[in-house]
Structures are given as C-alpha cells and as structure tokens.
Design a protein that fits this description.
The structure is a homodimer.
Chain A lengths: L16 H8 L3 H9 L6 H14 L5 H8 L4 E6 L5 H14 L5 E6 L4 H13 L4 E5 L5 H8 L5 E4 L9 E4 L2 H14 L5 E6 L5 H16 L6 E5 L5 H13 L6 E4 L2 H14 L8 E5 L13 E4 L2 H14 L11 E4 L3 E3 L5
Parallel strand pairs in A: 1-2, 1-3, 3-4, 4-5, 5-11, 6-7, 6-8, 8-9, 9-10
Antiparallel strand pairs in A: 10-12
Chain A binds a DNA duplex (30 and 30 nucleotides) through helix 2 and helix 4.
Chain lengths: ~350, ~350
DNA sequence: AGCAAATTTCGTAGCGCTGCGATGCAAGCC
DNA sequence: GGCTTGCATCGCAGCGCTACGAAATTTGCT
C-alpha cells in the first residue's frame, strides 16, 4: 500500500520555520525557542538564526503558533461604533499598550445591536483571543452564556455599577449626569434640560440622563426636560433638540448633553438665534472632544477616562497573560471622570 | 518503548469538532462539510449536526481552520489613525460589507510612522489574512518588499496616482486641492492661504496643498500662503494657523483647509475676531464631517468617498476570495470626490 | 581531574481542522 | 444484469508551530 498520488496540499507559507532551522543548521525547536525567548539561546546560535531569518524573509505563522500554543496573541475588541471619538480613543490607547507585546486587535462593531453583538462574540471566540473586550455591562442572553463559558478573560469597559462577567473598567454614568446637574445648579440654573442621542440603544446615555433627573429631584428642582433622538449624536441633532427644548413653555436656562457633539450643535443653534451663552443658557457637554476647548464659547464638559480605560485594560491583559484562572471573583475598576469647566456655563 | 508520562497538552477548546461528530454519529469530515457548505450534506444529517452544535455550544476554531485551509477569514487593515472620521468611516463601511461573510477585521494604526507600518505589516502577514488593506501608496522599502512577496491581495486606499502594489482604491488629492482653489477663485477670491495639519507625515495633505498651489499658478494668482503644523488636525490648530495667516501682510480673503476640523477652528477664530464669513473671508474645508453641514455658517467642503472606499474594497476582497492569482497587472480605482457648496464661501 | 548541577539543544507528539481521494450506495442506461 | 454516473459520507495525512521531556553540552566545585 504505497502512496500512489503523493498528496499535494496548498501551502500557506513561503518559508517555514523548518527551512530556517535547516539553513541555520539547528533544530526547529531551537528556532522556535529563539523566536519566543531569545535569552535562552546561546548568542552565537541566536545570531546565526537571526541572520537566516532576515536572509530568507521568514515571517512566522501566528495561525500555526496559536494552534500549537492553545491561544493566540490577539485581542478582540467589540464596540458599538468606531465612528465616535470616545471609543476610538480607548481603542487607540489599548492598541498602543498592546502593540509592543506583539498583539493584534480584532475589531468588531455592533452598531448597538444585541444580535450582532452575539454574532461578533462568537466569531471573536473562534479566534481564541488572549482576551475579549466589550463595551457595557448589559448583553443578550446568548452573549452572556458564551462569555461565561469561555476561559478567555473578558473585559467590560466604559461602564461601572452592574455585575461584570469577569472584570469591568469604566466609570459611573449616573454620577456623570448628577455631576452635570449639580454644576448647573451651582451656577444658579433652575430650569434644565438634557439632550441625548440614541437613548433607546445606548444604556450609558440613558444612565447619564437618569443621573441628571435624580440629582434634580435631590436638589429640589423642577424635573428636567429629557429630550432624545433616535439618530446618532451629531451637531445637527443637538441643534434640533435645543430648538425643541426652547419651544417648550417655561424658559430653560441650562442644558446638559449626552455628547459634546450635541452640545456643539446646541451652541451653533444659540449662535443662530442670538442666545447668549452662558448668559441666557448654560451648556454642559460630555466627552471633552477635540473641539470642546476651542469652540465659541469654550465648552464646559465632563471628560471620561477614554484613554485611561484603554491603558488599564492593556495592562490587565498583559498581567493575566500566563495566568490560567480568572480572578476569584469579578472585579470592577472605577476610573472616574472629571468636570472641565470652561466658559459655556 | 511505551509512553511513561502520557503527554498532556493544554487544550484550546472546550468542545471540538470531533466531539460534535461523535455525538451526531457522523464523521468529522461531514461536520466540517456541513459547517462550510451545508448544501452538500443531506438535510436529515444536517439537522442532526445543527442540533448537536447548539446543544454542546460548539464554537469552531478559526485558528485550526485557518491552518488547515492555508488562509484565514481575516482582513488586516492598517491605517495611520482611527481617531479620524475619514478612516473610521471607511473601516465601518468595510466591516459592514465583510461581517455577513464571517470576516474579522484585524486593525493596526501606524500613527504615520513608517517603521511602525512595517512592523504592523509583518504582524498582519503572520495571520495569513485573506487581504491586507493599507492607506496610501507610499511605503518604506521593507514594507514594500514584504507586500510584493506575499500572495495575499493588497489594497492601497485613499490615494490614487502612484503605482500600486496590487490594487488602489481612492481619489486624487492634488485634484482636491485644485478644486478648492478654483472654487475660491470663482467666488472672486484672490489672496489665498492653505492651512494644513501633519504636512510632513501626511503625504495626502501635502498633495492637496500642492494641487492648491499648482492651480493658483494656472489661474494666474499670487502663490497662496501654505501654513502647516506638526500636530494632528484640530480646531485649536485651525484657529492658530488662521491667526498666523492673518498676521501676514497683505490681507487674505480665502482659505482652504486640509481637514474640516481645521476649517471649523478657523470659523471659530473668525467668530472671535468678528470677521465676516464669507464676506471678508471664504472658507473651504475637506472631509464633510458630521458637523460641517450645521456649523455657523455651514461649511463649504470637499467630500471624499470614505464609505465608498470601504464598500468597494469589501466587494473586491470577496470577488478575489477563491482566486489564487493576483490580477494580471496592478489596477487603480478612482472613486472621485465632490465639492459641497455651503455658505462659508 | 572527577562529578554534580546548570544550561543549551533536540526529537517528538500533537493543537483542531480541512482537502483530497476513496468508499459505499442508489439511480440511470443500454 | 452489468455497467457507468452521481451523490453523500468517510479516512487520513498533513497545515506550521510549540510544549514537553530527554539528551547533550558546559559550568562550577571540591
């Protein structure tokens, strides 16, 4: 029984580790060891291997490596949208932490759709990533089941206060809303409104609105007007919602927005209508985006720890690298936020 | 010679395809076939497999699959930065095209650093992606060598006019600059300036500036003032550069910016100084970002085909899926751009 | 020098899956 | 009936690499 047709399989790589080993006159194990832990190989042989790698243009296969090592150097990040400076900042910071360690980011965006989130989590797990990062503490049944059943570390970011699957890194959105309200109250504002985008889907925006309302009650103020829109945050929506708020009887004198982009739109609307900010209307945003410090007037806003979240998660992932067990119990890291007062309030 | 210590290796998966096969009383090949091409398996057996998959919570391993199939369902995307609405839009569109086909995006950002680009390309290739997407036509020596040596399809996006490695999908930035200039000239502006960010690193911003200058010469105008900054585009930088431009003797009456964010900053600066736009100064941006239609005054800008690039690349990747050979010769797809006139000019 | 200990190198057995050809079996044809 | 044809299913040999333990070599110590 001999091979009649020698099976010819499609090859993936041009140069394999075995070829490098042969050219350097060492065993494949040594090449592998050198590539992973150069310190454990004698300098002479190391140099020889390095030379051959360079000469042959060898590129290791993470696919094969991941299979053999039962785990890849990839981190799955699943966010609602990347067209949003909040998450983009976190992702960039995370990437900056992870890149030196040779990690790759696997990106997915759910567009605030739970069933897409589940599909993405499933795909993510198929890659056997070193960790999986997703936004928020609320997930669909199926998603939760998938995540609870995996040994992969799970990081839930940009939210605090619920019960995380593994580790949460974020801050309290209710507290953000309450802070905005207290600030406006301190500035003497009494008739307030909250302008939000995507309030149905974005639980965190809703939490900020709730915190705003709650703090108003605590301060003995008239319940604030809560206005929302289905669309994503934009200056256009901000302008439109402000117009709506102004049309309501009983003149408002202060607003908070779920996003600086909305706040900027409100500022534009004020400019169009000749409303003095902060004289007639105080405006507080959320996000401290690129333009917030230099618009007219500069925007008072609440700065979330976007980059800090990315950095912290990056750090935790590396810390957990070798560790097989998840921590004894789920943990939450509250990174807080900061009110940045500028001239719009 | 018997196994004294039965080698125990770390397992990657909780449930493997073999276990699914056993539970469904079929061979692993059939499970694999069903998962990849359900139509080629009889309905009865297909249903049985589906049931077992669900019951066991089986998640296939793309790592093992990719190794066996010599190629993975991942697409590497390497951009200068994701903190920029331009590229974020392209990535989102690409993701939307690819997600239904089960692809994953591998993201990297170079921060406009060529050596980081090379490192990222190397990492990307290690994943044996179905395609690799990067921004621009200019790459370091090493990067180019890596890309020329791979059978993986390479897409260079957001630029046209050079010689692509494989396929380019973008538009002409020089032409963007020229269009901005011609528009300003038509509106009767004669003393012009161009405000750019990251001009050293961002070749495309430079090309827009060059096109602006070139068209000015062609129109017989005084050579425009070209002002740049090292930092990334921001309203703050836009305001500062406008201040610089206004300080130069010989009053300017029209500006073009390398980015709508810069243009917005210029508008803010005008507002602060009481300069009438477009009366005393016409402003043209680039990007048509979210706020551009609703700022004060609404911004005339040039809209790049951000999403169209993503969609087109997504389409091309799927088209190339089974095909082993790259197209006969490199190709370029010019998606054009559009001047959107609003009230700032 | 002689021996134990430490360090460096190697051989081998998979990781979980897919592609290829083979096999079995029912249907179609002369 | 004997033959081909077509279809569904199966068996097996890897894909390229890493973990593990063992072998070979060097080092340290008396």
């Amino acid at each position: 029984m001999e091979k009649l047709t020698p099976r010819r399989r499609r090859r993936m790589q041009r140069v394999t580790m075995a070829e490098v080993a042969q050219a350097a006159a060492v065993s494949p194990s040594t090449v592998s060891l050198y590539l992973r832990k150069p310190g454990q190989v004698s300098p002479a042989i190391g140099a020889r291997i390095a030379e051959v790698v360079e000469a042959l243009g060898y590129v290791p296969s993470f696919v094969a490596g991941g299979l053999a090592a039962a785990g890849s150097r990839a981190v799955s990040v699943i966010v609602p949208t990347i067209q949003n400076d909040f998450f983009a900042g976190t992702i960039a910071a995370l990437q900056a932490m992870l890149e030196p360690a040779g990690f790759q980011l696997l990106l997915g965006n759910t567009d605030y759709n739970p069933s897409r989130e589940e599909r993405l989590v499933r795909t993510a797990l198929s890659w056997a990533p070193a960790a999986i990062v997703l936004v928020g503490l609320e997930h669909g049944r199926g998603t939760k089941r998938l995540l609870l059943g995996t040994p992969t570390p799970v990081f839930e970011i940009w939210e605090c206060g619920g019960s995380p699957i593994d580790t949460a890194v974020g801050f309290h959105h209710r507290e953000v809303g309450a802070t905005a309200l207290r600030h406006l109250a301190e500035r003497g504002r009494r008739r307030l409104a909250f302008l939000g985008a995507r309030m149905e889907e974005d639980r965190r925006a809703r939490q900020r609105a709730d915190g705003f309302t709650g703090a108003a009650a605590a301060a003995g103020l008239t319940p604030p007007l809560i206005l929302g829109t289905r669309e994503r945050a934009s200056t256009e929506a901000g302008g439109r919602l402000l117009a709506e708020a102004l049309a309501v009887p009983g003149r408002i004198d202060g607003i908070a927005c779920s996003n600086d982009l909305m706040a900027l739109g409100a500022l534009f609307e004020c400019q169009r209508r000749g409303i003095n900010v902060p004289g007639a209307l105080a405006v507080v945003g959320f996000g401290d985006l690129g333009f917030s410090a230099s618009c007219v007037p500069p925007l008072t806003t609440i700065r979330p720890p976007s980059e800090a979240i990315g950095r912290e998660v990056g750090r935790l992932i590396q810390e957990r690298l070798g560790v097989a067990e998840p921590p004894d119990r789920p943990g939450t890291i509250d990174l807080g936020f900061k009110l940045v007062q500028r001239r719009s309030s």
